[in-house]
Amino acid sequence: MKAYHLNGQAGVGGLVLADVGTPEPASGEVRIRVEAASLNYRDLMILDRVGQGGLDGRIPLSDGAGVVDAIGSDVVQWKVGDRVAASFFPDWVSGPFRASYVSSALGGNTADGMLAEYVVLPATALVAVPAHLTSIEAATLPCAGVTAWHGLIARGGMGKGDTLLVQGTGGVALFGLQFATALGARAIVISSSDEKLARAKALGGSILINYRNTPDWDAVLMKATDGEGASHILELGGPGTYDRSMRSVASGGKIVQIGVLTGFGPKPDLARLQWENADIIGVTVGSVEHFTAMNRFLTGKAIYPIVDRVFGFDEVREAFAYLRTGAHFGKIVVKL
Q: Is 46 helix (H, G, I), strand (E, B) or coil?
């Protein structure tokens, strides 16, 4: 089979397509013929630190979907031909998160990812693809979709009548927007692009703020909500947005902390959380159980992921370069 590997060189030059042996499933494992894989900001971060060592030979990307191609012994929940997607943390099946699950994260420090024609994974690490979605659409779900679901709904309890602040129009942001719309929550979207804001409005965004033209977007948000603020905030920016998020959260609200898009830097003043009885929810993706629950929701609400652009298997370097531009609206997918 063909698979991409990281060769020790930072950046897209370190992505190498090679012929390797097709893996065979052992007891309790399933082999998947991968039909599509999607990119996340995490994948750029990994690519940029390849030169620091420890990632030579790693198959990248955490997200992918395809068809069960072979099964090992003792596998009863899947059969050849089933359409499945892989969970970001194969070891985190259900229950609370444990530090030991980190090492199982696909496409990271210690586990190969999905950018290969075939992958073998534990049968317990897979979820069924919603029937209304293609493999290209399903490949967008494992990281971005589950992250938004876990933070906003499984732990954040977002529902009808709530107000969600969405930062930007990447994968997690748009899943959050779609979930909010489906639940009857109001969505506030900030972006530096009027064109992207217009597209977000079509997905259900009700208050749209261009933060490039309006740097004090938190003041605009508070005015638009009659001083109440947002009950739920998808905090995707990091140090560049955190203080404004703190000033935007409603009493009893929840800041779902996910991103480091502006890097790692000074820590915000958390005092307002105490006075507003608000919470910070730290989220790194989710479990197989979260993924399965989200897929039921997607099916029941007929939600389709937003795919910005699809690249061919021989265009992976171009896909990474496009992700780096930040021009995308939704997810970037590689079709195998």
A: helix
Q: What's the Cα-to-Cα distance from 134 to each of 85, 139, 249, 298, rounded to whole Å?
A: 11, 9, 37, 13
Greater confidence (294 vs 109) lies with 294
- Sheet of strand 163-167: strand arrangement: 207-210, 186-191, 163-167, 230-235, 249-257, 279-282
Q: For the purposes of burial, counting CB atoms within 10 Å of the CB of 8, is it exposed (0-12), middle (13-18) or buried (19 or more)?
A: middle
Helix (H) or strand (E) holding 128: strand 126-128
- The residues that bridge with 207 in the sheet, in sequence order, are 188
pLDDT at residue 27 is higher than 80: yes
**pLDDT > 90 fraction of the chain, expressed in percent and rounded:** 85
- How large is the average pLDDT for residues 117-143? 98
Q: What is the pTM of this model?
A: 0.95
Query: What is the residue whose two structure tokens read 């719309």?
Result: 181
